[in-house]
Amino acid sequence: MIEAGSLIRSLSGRPAARNFHNFVINEIGLGIVTGKFPVGSILASDAAMMESYGVSRTVLREALKTLEAKGLVEARPKVGTRVSPMSRWSFFDPQVLSWHFYARPDRHFYESLFDMRRALEPRAAFLAAQRRTAENIRVMKYWLHQMDSAGGDLENHGIAALEIHRTLAETSGNVLMRSVTGVVELTLALALRQSAGAGDYLADTLGKLTTLVAAVGERDASAARSVVEQVIDLDEAATMLAIKP
Question: Domain HTH gntR-type, which positions (predicted)?
Fold first, then answer.
């Protein structure tokens, strides 16, 4: 499991694993996503990995089982542990998504992330405007205040923005809308990293999210949907700064 917001917090430095099990998962998983362990390749033997990572066979086996459950590897008798094709990876898994933050910029993958946001978030905003409660608005306004107070602090700005998106998904009343939270967090982290704290991006997102919360508060579903689309456009434009023309 990965805690919501942990990827944005890593903008100030890659977080350390909490235990040996997570350490091995992160090292191998990140190696697969970044291409250190290519698709179709066979991982080193258990003995070699135990020595390399300084863990017991039990810890290594449990880590590999976790990676297999995420679709990244497949263990075969007399063959070893093979890196699975990308088509089998669990891209809705927040941890799998988070490893892409450290991977080489990929226009096609980035476009896929924003396609997913456009498929779900505008509908979530539309429903949220129809179903919101006074408490929902209070929570979103609290996070708007946190964004405004963040100044140029990327981590605080990003966490506050993520919480507004999370609250919006919850307010929609559709539990499946929450499944996009990991995608939202990755794109926010990418946008913040690529914008390098550019004042225009931070100010523009704060302005758009303020307009969004106002539309939801006024139960203007069409306006809420439209503003979310503009927010996604801002995030995508900032993220694509990593891609050379």
Answer: 18-86
